[in-house]
Design goal:
Layout: E1 8-15, E2 20-31, E3 35-41, E4 46-48, E5 51-53, E6 58-64, E7 69-76, E8 79-93, E9 97-109, E10 115-118, H1 129-144, H2 146-162
Parallel strand pairs: 1-9
Antiparallel strand pairs: 1-2, 2-3, 3-6, 4-5, 6-7, 7-8, 8-9, 9-10
Length: about 160
Amino acid sequence: MGRQTSATITEHKTRLDGSVADFVCEALLVEPGKRAVVRYVSDREAHVGDLVLASGTVTIGHFWADRSYNVYHWTVDGRTVAYYASLVDDTTITAARIAYTDLTVDVLVKPSGAVMILDEDDLPDDLAPKRRIAIAKAMEAIIADPRGLIREIERESAAAQRGG
């Protein structure tokens, strides 16, 4: 059983160019070495694909040590706006930090199950084969069953926010 806490946890993203971004989140569920569910409230408007996310959008982030993607469940007033799968590699989860390498490509999944691949053209030409394989595996897992992913994320987001 995971450790549940109202403590914070840092999401540490390393991009392919080596730049880093850190986000301090509320830790909803943390199972070191396995998975984590966190909560983050945006303080500014963001544009993703054809979506505009208002300031105050709640993100429930889902991270797994054994998957090549993270999923951000975006909600406004408790209503799902979209699911954003960020393709990643080398995810590690500790009680204090979630660290991963962002593989640039993202998959936007709408509540209807419609899927949009984002940023694929931004991949470097010299990307290592290991990373290309991780991207292909993640895309296949998401695109093969977007509705299954939606069900899982809805269930896990609700459970984590309830504290169980």
